[in-house]
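#structure-requests
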Amino acid sequence: MKMGYKILIDPYHLLSPVQEWMLRKNDLDFLNLNQALARYKSAGWKNSHEISQYIAFPERIFSGFPLWFKKHADLFEKIVNESKVKQSRQYIPSIQALDQCLQDENVSLILLWNDHTAWTKALTYLGRKHDVPSLVVSHGIPGQIPVHGKVWADKIAVFGDSSRQFYLSNGNSEEKIVITGNPHWDSFKPCSNEKLHKIKKELQLPSHKKTIMYAPTWYHNFGNADNPEQYLIRDLKIVLAGIKNLSAYDNIELVVKLHPGQKEKWGFYDKALREEAISFKLFTNKSPLQLIQVSDVVICSGSMAVEAMLVGIPLIHLFNPEPNFATSDMAPFDIVFYEDEMIEALDRILKEGSEYLDGEIKSFLHRVNGRCDGKATERVANLALQMARESKSKRHMKEFVSPVSYSKHETYFSNIRQDIPAMITGKPQRILEVGCAEGGMGQLIKKEIGCEYVGLEIKKEACLEAQKRLDLVIHGDVEKTKLNEFGLAERSFDYRACA
């Protein structure tokens, strides 16, 4: 189906299923965000004089600070200003590039997986400036971290009602939040015994051993100055206590799946596990789905708990001091705090399996991941298409042609059309009038609205008069004039009047 939509997409693997589904079903054009930045980004930035102005701290700012802090006020001023220039150099060229991209490209939707970085926040703002809606597809179950509370995009696709309630409690409107489920989890399901043996062979896991998968938490506020690895050591100690106290200790293979943000911790885990003489394998880039499918039990403290339950693997949730979705009053799995709890839970599950009922697990999964029907990708894609469709329709309505017409008699070029100003709603920043005559109507609109007004007129005498009244008047034929030759992007106008 030919739709004529162009979608500016952030190239992240969690959005790949959505993009693939949309391309299979529709004739769309995707513009990669990195490609857009490379195409429009320049070496410098505009208005650099505003950025380079020095920030001076008034003395009152330092009231209440320790004496040693006040003594080094000049140093802190220097650090802040150096940081400001550094951040400006990093972000401003990208933001200006995205602004230009949205002016020049016929973008119908901005599709993101994260709206919390400086430039993705700016991109959602620029989208509103150019009437391009933005949709962020949540890439996790939100925790109690400040950056998770505010939704900057026009809409967010969340996994389930637990996420929806979180965002509502942080002041976001209901209209912003749409429950779709997680597209990435559509493929998470149990596998056959034949496939299980094949995966074990590919991963070089011994078929005769029980497999325990451990997915360490990626601590955002990692460690402290005294002991930067204290949380990793604490969690690993609890896991190893459970394994080493098993009666069939030698019949265990430990699979450790590191978060992509923990790659630098490979050496830490490799060294610690070798010292314990544990039979283990470490993975970073491998998809968690296959690792979960071949496991007899999964130990984790993040959203991988949901993935384990979708696959039907017994779960032990290692307590995380940061509040999250796995609270003890609603979670259908073991939550352990201490070594003795891990020892008891691990031994029981490997001998008897999970003690939780299917109904409890399904109810929990529904809260955190909606319908769990394998159609989250389709729901996100349809939401994106709907937003793109509405965006294009809205912009098309702004490009109006007056139904009133008449012959160009001697009063035509000085006549002021009273019907056109009444058609304009809101507070447009820039208007283009094709056939502006002597600029009388534009002058009236400028006075009433206070916007920038650009005229295009083919008759030279009328053009000269219009130049006295409007911000810019181009002498030329509408069918031959290229606005970009005058530094004007097609998408930079809020209204185009063809009267």
